[in-house]
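quick one
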Amino acid sequence: VKHIGVLTSGGDAPGMNAAIRAVVRKSVYHGLRVSGIRHGYAGLMAGEIEEMDLGSVADIIQRGGTKLYTARSPEFLTDQGQELGVAMLQKHDIDALVVIGGDGSFRGARALSHRGVRTIGVPGTIDNDLPCTDYTIGFDTAINTAIDAIDKIRDTATSHERTFVIEVMGRNAGDIAVISGLAGGAESILIPEAPYDMDQIIDKLERGVERGKRHSIILVAEGVGKGMKIGELIGQRTGWEVRVTVLGHLQRGGSPTAFDRALASRMGAMAVDLLIQGETSMMVGIKGKKMIATDIDAALDSMREVDLSIYELAGILSI
Ligand code: F6P
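structure w/ 6-O-phosphono-beta-D-fructofuranose:
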């Protein structure tokens, strides 16, 4: 490998910049050329490609978002789009690619591998919804943002003795809801991976009030449904004044935590190592404290293991 391209794709995640920095600096360290591709696959097809050097990634490790911009590109799912992408890489003499993103981005990475471009995926998404890694870049920052919001909402919930429903992101995964719910002391957590019973939730809320609890927080993962609907339902059933907050995209921003910066740095560097070793169609991950590499097919085709013990613990501790 002589010239590595790097792009970010799909929803941005705090720590993506640290990953870009690692890819660029590790490439330069090994004497390789490295180019940044802006706006994900859309920018690849449009030829938005620029060579990077050590200075191109100065002062970004602490920044949220992605210096390379990002996009979701349905066009890249077509043969025509992929052929155009390969042609652009050839035109710029790029012989290997690091794709930082979630599962949609990895599908593009796999397609490029099948077309002969050596490609490695780096998991970057706040959702933490990829198999073959314990953590994705951005998740830790997102849960810290979420608990900061939960703490603030709890202040006003306490003052007004109110019940709050807070909707968090996560697409089809409940990880953000589970960890921020446990860490934020939510009374109930609703996630797509576990069935919930509205009667039981209401029962628990009412028992809490009888015991003297003056406020409650119910955390809803967006994969379960709209927080607004659930708030209305609880209000109708209890006759209480329920307020709803949708945390939304603020969970995607902000300076990455130390954990995300370190994870992104290790993952970006490992992607370059894998390309130097001649690998392709792999994703990097972390299991325990160890960095691992898995075939991207396994990542895309296998089911994610869901450990419900933390979810259950949150239920026990919020009794
Ligand atoms: O995948 C990250 C994510 O933030 C999900 O949690 C959410 O469902 C989705 O992206 C939102 O996408 P968009 O920014 O396109 O509205």
